[in-house]
């Protein structure tokens, strides 16, 4: 166990600055991993890193000294934990566990992505980890934080690289104590036995799976699997159903309103994705495969620092655009077709979400332009409602979007007599959703509550015209969706995805290279 000590932290900080200032050829022995101090473009680095994720000492080009994760300072993570604990009753305990490594086949794993709530509370990006927060109102922070992780392992480091040591967990992640994950069950049992409430959640399961029992919960919360029968029974008893409370709704309430630091990171994510949309319009040509366009989009985002796509991209050409979640991306783009691209990146822990629709050959036909302008008119009117002053909820905005869409479609020749095709047939999805660390932010956010300044939502009306006789033939097999990320303001909305063109003149200019952008 490593416990916070001001003197220790000061010594470690001084040692870190000294070693980085030393000769770039000097070898540093740290956490049983040798790292060389190397300066590139004025930035100090440690290669290989002695930590389990980028930190200021090893990745100065990505993260500042005061930050825990890129763009998010240590004080922001402390604020989140403080606000969470202040909202809970006295004698409360919060237990949050890290995500699990997921496997594609056999021992071949996917790239690890941290559990969203665990990331929100800690910024720690390693699996097999947990945090316990104990409410202590009389202390300076109002809580006591214990972190559990695998720590350093010389043998594994040769294969997978270093993990963060307990000392560094205390220093860089602001924990009061850091222990090996094997001690987690016994510490939890001890603390839970005296707590009045224990707030925790389990990893998400599909709706088809059985309800999670305390016994299966404890199997997950005990990575070491080393509990004796008596210890196991005692831990079960300490987590009785009367004490257990759901953590996700409490964290979801905090995650709904984004801080200024989150706004900045999300703006960067949206700008990266928006520029990729712009360049992909220039890149796309008739005869090209949808998968080539999808690959180019992902490449453009990765080149700018995106860690992963926020979701599987949709590149739907022609009638494929009628399938809202079309992801095969395996057909050829024909001349004269519209191309609907719903794609965006995840950047420094935050998702973006943008959709654009454009002509494959760079020029809208009159019919395509007419339908596109109808959707765009609705979308722009809806974005204007995304303010706290409007006192509207996301569901109210959706209902307004249906009314607006009906009027716009009737204006261009659609008819909706009783018993014929309805607006729901053409526009079958919700107008938008909250976005943040998750693409579809916490399901615990109430879509019927009025929007608040600081929320980030998508506004994405769409029209998908099947070849039905009741709809104008000129618009058959055209799918159009226009989606932006919007930061809700007090009086004015702020469109984070503004770098992605959506006016017809701008789209055609991007497609034809008239705006000075290259495909790469």
TrEMBL record:
<dbReference type="InterPro" id="IPR000994">
    <property type="entry name" value="Pept_M24"/>
</dbReference>
<dbReference type="InterPro" id="IPR036005">
    <property type="entry name" value="Creatinase/aminopeptidase-like"/>
</dbReference>
<dbReference type="GO" id="GO:0006508">
    <property type="term" value="P:proteolysis"/>
</dbReference>
<dbReference type="GO" id="GO:0005739">
    <property type="term" value="C:mitochondrion"/>
</dbReference>
<dbReference type="InterPro" id="IPR052433">
    <property type="entry name" value="X-Pro_dipept-like"/>
</dbReference>
<keyword id="KW-0378">Hydrolase</keyword>
<comment type="similarity">
    <text>Belongs to the peptidase M24B family.</text>
</comment>
<dbReference type="InterPro" id="IPR029149">
    <property type="entry name" value="Creatin/AminoP/Spt16_N"/>
</dbReference>
<dbReference type="GO" id="GO:0070006">
    <property type="term" value="F:metalloaminopeptidase activity"/>
</dbReference>
<keyword id="KW-0479">Metal-binding</keyword>
<protein>
    <recommendedName>
        <fullName>Aminopeptidase P N-terminal domain-containing protein</fullName>
    </recommendedName>
</protein>
<keyword id="KW-0464">Manganese</keyword>
<dbReference type="Pfam" id="PF05195">
    <property type="entry name" value="AMP_N"/>
</dbReference>
<feature type="domain" description="Aminopeptidase P N-terminal">
    <location>
        <begin position="72"/>
        <end position="209"/>
    </location>
</feature>
<dbReference type="Pfam" id="PF00557">
    <property type="entry name" value="Peptidase_M24"/>
</dbReference>
<dbReference type="GO" id="GO:0030145">
    <property type="term" value="F:manganese ion binding"/>
</dbReference>
<dbReference type="InterPro" id="IPR007865">
    <property type="entry name" value="Aminopep_P_N"/>
</dbReference>
<dbReference type="InterPro" id="IPR001714">
    <property type="entry name" value="Pept_M24_MAP"/>
</dbReference>
